[in-house]
Write a structure and sequence with these properties.
Elements (H helix, E strand, L loop, with lengths): L15 H12 L2 E2 L11 H12 L12 H15 L9 E4 L1 H13 L5 E6 L3 H9 L3 E6 L9 H7 L4 E7 L11 H13 L3 E5 L25 E6 H4 L8 E4 L2 H11 L10 H9 L3 H24 L3 E3 L6 E5 L8 H12 L1 E2 L1 E2 L13 E5 L4 H18 L1
Parallel strand pairs: 1-11, 3-4, 3-5, 5-6, 6-7
Antiparallel strand pairs: 2-8, 7-8, 9-10, 10-13, 12-13
């Protein structure tokens, strides 16, 4: 009979991450494919989760989120960005940022509405847009600087544009959008009366003194911006699935109306623990970023030493490298062969693209791993230059 899956989701089968993780296991390779840390987050946060479990906080939390987490998110936005939020009306806790993205698109988009996003894009964006019956319109960020192409971006907008889905710091490129680039996006959104939905899960993982600018802080943007973030990336707890969306009360209520029928609620005892984490000192936040910056530098040096051309990321967990200097003509085949050739796993950037040719030989590697794991990967990658010849 064939697959009963609805047509709009037919292109979203098993992910590249599942394939590459299986290859890593089969080959005993160092897995730099998937973006999760291999160490735990702050001890105070972990202890707070245990305390919440022991205190019996194991049933359904309130629909919008536990009060202390709502308040902690509002306090975080005030502390870091000077925004004043009403925690009861302008913040909603979700099951990770992935649910926040899906619930927001489902809440705001009618079938046929258009969603503008940049490619490469995180894979859930395309799936969530398809679930809503909306139409994806993209503008390409090109290696090595991944700068916004104004003409391409303008061309992506139309009278049907309902929202812009923006990710900064950006996965998979590691790009941090500049204030000028964001202002261009915002000007186009205002011109087309579109919402801006910003995925800022890597907001604290920026390097080299680069500034992360939340779109909601830009002039005239609060009333049309929904901001999404999560604890998973900032506090190395990706399995907890605690995210949130904040913005104007009416828009947050719209997202909540959809979210309640996706998961209802989730992550009960982890919510108060994340509230603790959000209130930790500046030294904790700075330490997370500086540790990752050192890991980035270690992997970048290793990739360059192996003969790849590298785009040095300003944020996130990821670095993108071009394997063409090693003779690669297709990154997917290169990544399938890499575990056998060098005992390392990466992910082809083309899987995050509609315009596959824009990333034909690009590979994404994750550096959110222990130093000894990265050093082992770098050592193994060093064999590539030799084998290439």
């Amino acid at each position: 009979m064939g697959s009963p899956l609805v047509a709009r989701m037919q292109g979203f089968g098993s992910t590249i991450f599942a394939e590459m993780t299986a290859l890593a296991t089969e080959r005993g390779a160092v897995n730099l494919g998937q973006g999760f840390p291999d160490t735990d987050g702050p001890r105070a946060m972990l202890d707070a989760a245990k305390a919440a479990i022991d205190a019996g906080r194991n049933q359904y939390p309130p629909g919008p989120g536990v009060p202390e987490l709502l308040e902690a998110v509002a306090a975080h936005q005030k502390r870091f960005y000077g925004m004043d939020l009403d925690p009861r009306r302008e913040v909603l806790v979700t099951v990770g940022a992935t649910e926040a993205i899906a619930a927001t698109i489902l809440a705001l988009c009618e079938p046929g509405d258009e969603v503008v996003t940049f490619e490469p894009y995180y894979d859930s964006y395309a799936a969530s847009i398809a679930l809503a019956g909306a139409v994806r319109r993209t503008s390409v960020l090109r290696f090595p600087d991944f700068a916004v192409d104004e003409a391409s971006l303008r061309a992506a907008f139309s009278s049907r544009t309902r929202l812009v889905l923006l990710n900064t710091p950006h996965n998979p490129t590691g790009k941090v959008f500049s204030r000028e680039e964001l202002e261009l996006v915002c000007a186009l959104a205002r011109e087309h009366d579109a919402w801006v939905v910003t995925d800022e899960v890597y907001e604290h993982l920026v390097f080299d003194g680069v500034e992360h600018v939340p779109v909601a802080t830009l002039p005239g943007m609060w009333d049309r911006t929904l901001t999404i973030s999560s604890a998973g990336k900032t506090f190395s707890a990706t399995g907890w699935k605690v995210g949130w969306v904040s913005g104007p009360a009416e828009a947050v209520a719209a997202v909540r109306a959809v979210k309640q029928f996706l998961t209802f609620v989730g992550s009960g005892p982890f919510q108060p623990a994340v509230a603790v984490a959000l209130g930790l000192g500046d030294d904790v936040y700075a330490g997370l970023a500086s540790s990752l910056q050192a890991k980035r530098d270690l992997l970048v040096a290793g990739l360059r030493g192996a003969g790849l051309e590298v785009s040095v990321p300003a944020g996130t967990y990821f670095v993108v490298a071009d394997a063409a200097p090693l003779g690669a003509v297709d990154a997917l085949e290169f990544c399938r062969e890499l575990p056998g050739r060098a005992g390392v796993v990466g992910v082809p950037v083309s899987v995050f693209h509609d315009d596959v040719d824009a990333a034909r030989t690009l590979v994404r590697f994750a550096f959110c791993k222990r130093d000894e794991v990265l050093q082992e990967a770098v050592g193994r990658l060093g064999t590539l230059r030799t084998s290439a010849g």
